[in-house]
Amino acid sequence: MNTAEIKNKERALNEFVLVLRKIMVEPDICQTALEITRKHIDEKHANVKIADELSATTSIKIPLEHSEADSLFLEMLKDLVRDEKALY
C-alpha cells in the first residue's frame, strides 16, 4: 500500500469517527437514520435517497459525491436494517 492509499484510508477513518461522534452526542440520529434506511433500502439508488434524506433531516451531511466513509456509513446502516429484518 503506497503513501497516498494510507492517507486516503486514514482520512476515511477520521471522517467515519466524526460521524460516530455526532451520533453519540445526538442519539436521536441513530433512530432517524435507521427509519430512513428502512424506508429506502429496497429502492433503486437507495444510498442516494438515504443520504439525501439523512442530510435534510439531521446534522449528518452527506455530499452528493459520497466519500469512502460516507459509503461505509450507508452500507453499515443497510446491514443493520437487513440484520433487523432477519430477526423477524
Distinct helical segment count: 4
Q: Mind describing the biggest β-sheet?
A: none
What class would the helix/strand composition place it in?
Answer: mainly alpha
Number of strands: 0
Name the helicity range. over 70%
Taking pLDDT < 50 over at least 5 consecutive residues as the criterion, the unreliable ranges are none
Mean pLDDT: 92
Distance between the termini: 42 Å
Q: Percent of residues in beta strands?
A: under 5%
* Mass-distribution shape: globular
- Helix and strand pattern: HHHH
Q: Quaternary status of these chains?
A: single chain
**Taking Cα atoms only, what radius of gyration do you get, to the nearest Å?**
14 Å
Descriptive report:
By secondary structure, the protein is mostly helical. 77% of the residues lie in helices and 0% in strands. The chain is built from four helices and no strands. Helix 2 packs across helix 4. The chain is globular and about 45 Å long.
